């Protein structure tokens, strides 16, 4: 599928070529906006027509394909205006046909009007809606539009956002595509829904918001422009007015002060004003144009207006130029967007799981998920490679685990020293010695005393290793679940089983670790042993202070404070009444201190090895067995479930397929037009 996608940059560069070719054709933006060659310059319009027609045709085809559904905006001339301001009449004047008009709401759906000049003297008219093309003629057009509108928006006065397309092929019309929108009404008339204003403004905003839209603001000469709802709306999306052109209608009815109004430009119309007189009553199109010309030639006030801002022919010409400008400006971007969108959709489509049709296929897909999840777990939990999760701090597991282990070690240290300083120096040892006294020689340290003290110490920190193990496994569970979820993302049917498998396994492992920790703690309580020579060397270092300590006790002139290297500062004043046991107590305390260091390190080292071992086993062996059991074990029907495609995936696949089809067609349209332009230039 992806083979039909062009290499990046391919089409956009062609599109840029198009722009430079357009400049060669002398229809660059500056040229298009050159106001001097304006009035009644029919050949100019038609030469623009010839050149712009293929481009406009392409844009129209894109519109017809509904490319806007893909979020790709097309250059569009949007006709807005308050109700009865004369929108339909202006379009009618441009097309030389009769549209439904009158009191009340007539334009109830967006009407896309495509005017195409053709050579035959006979006009051809079509209406397109609901995927149908209905031929009609000038005589029946008004009725046909009403019928079509009723079909789209229902009979009555409701409105709809589904557009109706009117194609007018007629000699002498400018090549223009415009969208006529329902007029804005503040107050619903009888039979209109209450929220008619909101409905209409929503449609209008949708059409005029894109930067690609030119807003043709139709204003009646008889009103104060600044009170027009349509002006307020267009100002919201086009503050500077740079893409707003005003058409002032009904100049025949209110010629007074018109010149001042358009010269003052109170309402910020960037593209300027054009004043027109539309068809009145039963006039034919030709009669109406004659009347308009007469009016601007002879009327005492209107004849004073600059020729460059009056009349339907001039409006036609301006619109053709503006249209060419925006198309030339927007086309490269459109081509780029089509390509971007197409390749991202194709990519997304390829990422969707294949629709599985047999147990064998399901098995393959399942094994693939299992394999890739396992590899991902190895990377994150064991090897410390986090390219799968570059920005997710929590998923950089080896670093987080090391961090937690360090914290654990610090916690053990600080907890121990807090326990040690709770009592005054040696008093706890002395009271234990009192209680372990026995009938025997005095210069043997009772082992029972040492063990009692050791057990007290171990008990004092015993909650910390258990809490640590719980915390670590909670963390691992989060990581494992998140990796598994990510890998089974495409098969929602797998999500719950894999999650369950991971949670079961982790909770089993957590329990095992807690049992292990409890055993370790019991072992530490039971036996005092180490082969670590550091124990003896530390004890010697501490015992080097024994003499100094005893002197401080016996000789009351010595300071009562002393510093024991490796233990800390102690105050001995309270011990001067316990001189008899002090020496023995000091020895015992120093043995305990030297040994306690060994115990703490053993707790941390053992924990580190245990965790590495358990996580390694979990990732390399146990995880997949657990998941397989859950999926295809005695109670699992996971593979069967994988065969049923989830409705969300099916829906997504359908949507993407439609969108890819549409974008491919759109790509065909634009690539053809680009070739055409190239051929035309040569
Ligand atoms: P829309 O609601 O904006 O589409 O307005 P219409 O085009 O339906 O026009 C409303 C009314 O104004 C109709 O009766 C038209 O005949 C009338 N009208 C439109 N333009 C002119 C004009 O230039 N001069 C005069 N005298 N009447 C006009
Ligand atoms: Mg109308």
TrEMBL record:
Gene3D superfamilies named among the record's database cross-references: Dynamin, middle domain (1.20.120.1240), P-loop containing nucleotide triphosphate hydrolases (3.40.50.300)
Gene Ontology annotations for the cellular component aspect, listed alphabetically: cytoplasm; membrane; microtubule
E.C. numbers: 3.6.5.5
Matches recorded under SUPFAM superfamilies: P-loop containing nucleoside triphosphate hydrolases (SSF52540)
PROSITE patterns linked to this entry: G_DYNAMIN_2, GED
Pfam families: Dynamin_M (PF01031), Dynamin_N (PF00350), GED (PF02212)
Keyword hit for GTP-binding: yes
Tagged with keyword GTP-binding: yes
Domain GED intervals: 585-678
Highest rank taxon of the organism: Eukaryota
Enzyme class, UniProt record, top EC level: hydrolase
Domain (Dynamin-type G) ranges: 71-332
One Gene Ontology molecular-function label: GTP binding
Keywords: GTP-binding, Hydrolase, Motor protein, Nucleotide-binding
PANTHER family for this protein: DYNAMIN, DYNAMIN-RELATED PROTEIN 4C
Name of the protein this chain belongs to: Vacuolar sorting protein VPS1, dynamin
Organism: Handroanthus impetiginosus
């Amino acid at each position: 599928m992806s083979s039909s996608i062009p290499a990046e940059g391919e089409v956009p560069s062609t599109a840029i070529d198009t722009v430079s070719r357009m400049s060669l054709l002398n229809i660059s933006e500056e040229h298009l906006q050159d106001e001097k060659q304006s009035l009644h310059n029919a050949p100019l319009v038609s030469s623009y027509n010839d050149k712009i027609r293929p481009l406009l045709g392409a844009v129209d085809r894109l519109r017809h394909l509904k490319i806007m559904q893909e979020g790709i905006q097309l250059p569009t001339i949007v006709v807005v205006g308050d109700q009865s301001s004369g929108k339909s009449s202006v379009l009618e004047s441009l097309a030389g046909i009769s549209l439904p008009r009158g009191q009340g709401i007539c334009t109830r759906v967006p009407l896309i009007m495509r005017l195409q000049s053709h050579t035959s003297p006979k006009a051809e008219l079509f209406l397109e809606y609901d995927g149908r093309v209905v031929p009609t003629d000038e005589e029946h057009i008004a009725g046909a539009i009403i019928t079509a509108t009723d079909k789209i928006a229902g009979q009555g006065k409701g409105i709809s956002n589904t557009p109706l397309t009117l194609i007018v092929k007629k000699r002498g019309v400018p090549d223009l595509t415009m969208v006529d929108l329902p007029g804005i009404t503040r107050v619903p008339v009888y039979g209109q829904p209450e929220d008619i204003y909101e409905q209409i403004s929503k449609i209008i905003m949708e059409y005029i918001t894109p930067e690609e839209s030119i807003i043709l603001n139709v204003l009646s000469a008889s009103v104060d422009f600044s009170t027009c709802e349509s002006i307020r709306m267009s100002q919201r999306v086009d503050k500077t007015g740079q893409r707003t052109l005003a058409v002032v209608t009904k100049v025949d009815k209110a010629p007074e002060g018109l010149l001042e109004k358009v010269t003052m430009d109170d309402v910020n119309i960037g593209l300027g004003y054009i004043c027109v007189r539309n068809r009145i009553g039963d006039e034919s199109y030709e009669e109406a144009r004659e009347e308009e010309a007469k009016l601007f030639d002879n009327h005492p006030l209107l004849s004073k207006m600059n020729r460059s801002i009056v009349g339907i022919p001039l409006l036609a010409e301006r619109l053709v130029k503006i249209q060419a400008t925006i198309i030339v400006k927007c086309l490269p971007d459109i081509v780029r967007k089509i390509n971007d969108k197409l390749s991202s959709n194709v990519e997304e489509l390829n990422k969707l799981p294949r629709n599985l049709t047999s147990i064998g296929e399901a098995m393959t897909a399942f094994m693939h998920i299992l394999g890739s999840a396992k590899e991902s777990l190895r990377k994150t939990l064991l090897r410390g490679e986090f390219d799968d999760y570059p920005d997710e701090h929590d998923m950089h597991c080896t670093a987080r685990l090391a961090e937690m282990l360090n914290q654990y070690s610090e916690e053990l240290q600080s907890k121990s020293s807090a326990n040690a300083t709770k009592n005054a120096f040696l008093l706890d040892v002395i009271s234990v010695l009192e209680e372990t006294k026995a009938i025997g020689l005095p210069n043997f340290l009772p082992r029972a005393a040492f063990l009692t003290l050791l057990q007290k110490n171990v008990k004092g920190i015993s909650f910390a290793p258990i809490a640590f193990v719980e915390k670590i496994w909670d963390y691992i569970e989060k990581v494992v679940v998140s990796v598994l979820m990510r890998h089974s993302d495409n098969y929602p049917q797998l999500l719950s089983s894999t999650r369950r498998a991971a949670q079961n396994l982790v909770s089993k492992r957590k329990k095992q670790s807690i049992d292990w920790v409890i055993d370790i703690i019991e072992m530490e309580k039971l036996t005092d042993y180490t082969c670590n020579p550091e124990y003896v060397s530390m004890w010697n270092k501490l015992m080097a202070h024994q003499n100094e300590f005893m002197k401080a006790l016996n000789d009351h002139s010595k300071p009562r404070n002393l510093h024991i290297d490796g233990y800390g500062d102690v105050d001995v004043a309270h011990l001067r009444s316990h001189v008899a046991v002090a020496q023995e107590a000091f020895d015992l305390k120093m043995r305990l201190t030297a040994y306690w260091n060994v115990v703490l390190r053993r707790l941390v080292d053992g924990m580190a090895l245990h965790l590495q071992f358990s996580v390694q086993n979990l990732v390399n062996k146990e995880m997949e067995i657990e998941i397989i059991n859950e999926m295809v074990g005695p109670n699992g029907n996971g593979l069967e479930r994988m065969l049923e495609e989830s409705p969300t995936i099916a829906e997504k696949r359908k949507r993407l397929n439609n969108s890819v089809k549409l974008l491919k067609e759109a790509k065909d349209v634009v690539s053809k037009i680009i070739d055409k332009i190239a051929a035309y230039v040569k």
